Amino acid sequence: MSPTRISFDARLRQAVRAFWVGPTSAAEEQRVGGKTDQGNRGMVTSGKTMDSFRNMIIDVIKRTGPKGVIVHRDKSLVVLPGFFRPTKQWDVLAVHNGRLLAALELKSLCGPSFGNNANNRCEEALGSACDFRKAQSEGLFGPGAAPFLGYFILVEDADGSRQPVASKSPHFATDPCFKSASYQRRMTVMCERMMQQQLYACASVLTAPNSSETGEHAHLSAHTSFRNLLTRLAAHLTSEAEAERFNGMLGEAQAAYGTKSVLDGECFESGEV
Fold first, then answer.
1. Is 241 helix (H, G, I), strand (E, B) or coil?
2. Which of 187, 194, 168 is nearest to 107 (CA)?
3. How confident is the model over 247-256, as pLDDT tens digits?
């Protein structure tokens, strides 16, 4: 029996609910075990809080990638070589025929220490992307690999992340876009600019209040939405699957790829004058 399919919006609400259930359970387990992290750190150190979002990404990879694509999510198997450092651990990898097709990083930003955590997230995202792109240019991800690099961050929707924050720079003026910008706005600007600078193929930010009841959430812009991240990932993997088919690596006998390509037949208008 095939699994039940639900809409993107319904599945995303499930993922948000699971995110807040996971942290609560992890914090309780630490308390019972005699370990207590400061602040909400116990909510995110279990490593499983992003699982439901990761599962959505994996579903997209399996449904749109080339036949035989291998998805890795285990810690020991999501490690890639770096250029400025030996290795870097990601959250999801898609590999096919010795080439990296996609790598994604999933993060969260929860209170009460939004300031320090936001700075850490920014430095991590920029450093990882720069290292990744240089390693890619050196051919460390397989011959001709041009992988999709994606970034996703869930920001707790709370007073501390919504309120304006002053940016003090004693010697030079800060960029006007950061003037009195909240941490939610700062994360959105970061994601927008990481895409503009082609560090990430797509970077997404989602806000959600700390509640496991409704799955309430919001996107701060259409181009930094989680839907856009999955849409762009699907488009990249579909093109990889199409390229594999064109190169004759997928036979017509394979039912999943037995349909015609958009480039088959008389599909173009004549360019003759």
1. helix
2. 187
3. 664 444 444 4
What separation in angstroms does the CA of 56 have from each of 35, 39, 224, 234? 31, 29, 17, 12
In the chain, the N- to C-terminal Cα span, in Å, equals: 54
E runs forming strands in 64-216: 70-72, 79-81, 87-89, 92-96, 99-109, 148-156, 202-208
Q: Where are the domains of the chain?
A: 61-246
Cα within 13 Å of Cα(253), Cβ side: 0
pTM confidence score: 0.84
Peptide bond into 147 cis (omega under 30): no
Two structure tokens written together for 121 = 């997230």
Contact 201, 150 (CB under 8 A): yes
Rounded CA separation 101/142 (Å): 10
Half-sphere exposure of 198 toward its Cβ, with a 13 Å CA cutoff?
4
The model's pLDDT over 24-45, given as tens digits with 9 standing for 90+, comes to 554 455 444 555 445 444 444 3
Q: Between residues 221 and 49, which one has the greater pLDDT?
A: 221
